[in-house]
Amino acid sequence: MLTVSRVVLCVALALSGTVRAAETDSIRLSVDAAKGGAKIDRHIFGQFAEHLGRGIYEGVWVGPDSKIPNTRGIRNDVVGALKAIKVPNVRWPGGCFADEYHWRNGIGPRDKRPATLNPNWGGVIEPNTFGTHEFMDFLQQIGADAYLSINVGSGTPAEAADWLEYLTTSQPTALAKERAANGHADPYPIALLGIGNESWGCGGSMTPDEYVNHLKVYARYARNYNPSHPMRRVAVGPDGPDTGYTEAVMKAWKNKTWAWDIEGLSLHSYTVVKWPPAFKATGFGENEYATLLKATLNMEGLVSKHSAVMDQYDPEKKIALVVDEWGAWLAATPGSPEGFLEQQNSQRDALVAALNLNIFARHADRVRVANIAQMINVLQAMIFTRQEKMLLTPTYHVFKMYVPFHDATFVPIDVAAGTYKSGDIELPRLDAIAARDAAGKLWLSLTNLDPNRAVSIDVAVSGTKVTSARGLTLVAPKIDSVNTFEAPGAVTPKAFSAKAAGKSLTVKLAPASVTVVELE
Ligand code: AHR
Prior knowledge:
Layout: H1 4-16, E1 24-32, E2 46-48, E3 70-71, E4 74-75, H2 76-84, E5 89-92, E6 116-118, E7 124-126, H3 132-142, E8 145-150, H4 157-168, H5 174-181, E9 192-195, H6 208-221, E10 232-235, H7 244-254, E11 264-271, H8 286-313, E12 320-328, H9 347-362, E13 367-373, E14 383-386, E15 389-392, H10 394-401, E16 409-411, E17 413-415, E18 419-422, E19 425-428, E20 430-436, E21 442-448, E22 454-462, E23 468-474, E24 494-501, E25 504-509, E26 513-519
Helix pairs in contact: 4-5, 6-7, 7-8, 8-9, 9-10
Bound molecules: alpha-L-arabinofuranose (AHR).
The site of alpha-L-arabinofuranose (AHR) has 10 residues, from loops.
């Protein structure tokens, strides 16, 4: 029976946002290790690095003369942290910035490069010291592929075609010789090419049909001349639920001639409750926690909706759905520069990351690339820097815990997820995925959305014998717990293990936690 004092306690906990193991009951989850689905493409763990705020300058680039330890101007601490999460690809140079970027400003001797403007993001000076070669050097240092966005909004097909020739040809053309003179004789590999960015918005306010006309031209002339490294072309796609772009691009692709092609369609969708983003990144209560997680779970409906349209034109799923901008977009950190999109990153963001990644994994047959926005110091970042200091966020830790899911085979699970209620919001209490890695090991990711109740998961595994579970759990004292430069380890994963008792393996999850385990 709920006594008055317990009610008072529950209300107090809810108001304070404190995470407590108040009640535990159990959920049954069964998994057949012999079953398998699509490959969870490692490219769904991609990053996005725009020339925006302190994302590139300070976040990645400090220059060779900096006292911050660096390799050819790229900070070593950041490279080390990104290598540990095995970043598969980085989307660059934007975003809205890409449709105003002219690549020639960013090559050649750095002291001769022009200062230009960045009107989208604070109207600051763009020094162009981080350009094509610096980006490719950064990728080589972290071991990631290039996802380049070309300028459709204010550029020309010739400008884009020249950039691709400059980057990828091994023939002795004038552009290849210029590349060699700038320090790189060999052609570069470009894995992904975004043809414009948000052409329905900051990329030119085009109708779907207007964009399709541009797409055909750019997809033809922005060629990859490096045949040993195939390049996938990604068309601009929908803004949230609107299927106008999805229909127009997919229809054009279905009826295309030999002269052009694409391999991907982009989808942008942020976890944002209303515009302009007003939800606080810290100091929020349970209602804002539940509201934001509910908004996050809308990604499931969006991906299903656009996949269904794509299926009509492409039942063989040749075209990937590329969710190349996703993540929580919250109110900016008070006092941060206008237009820099700086926000703190809490345990709630860790859950936002896990829920989105689980949705992409469940749609692994169609969602084959995704890029969280953004990698460093911007929006739902992995990393914060403050001059010589670097900090890893709760979101970073989720990306690290998910490394075993890179290129693993999705394994379906059967679970009655239960319900977590907060006011009139009802969410599943548990969100989970399973996968088998290349070595045949079975992995589970388990997210307990309920911030008030721990939960026991009774895991029944068929197809293999399992006696224990071992991995990491990310749990925090409060739903808005964050890492700071003063307390960088407040939210870090802890070792986690469970042993089978008799025939059943029981895994106990703390409230508002993300747990990744290997079943042994
Ligand atoms: O990620 C910030 C901005 O959000 C990007 O530049 C743009 O594509 C989107 O609207």
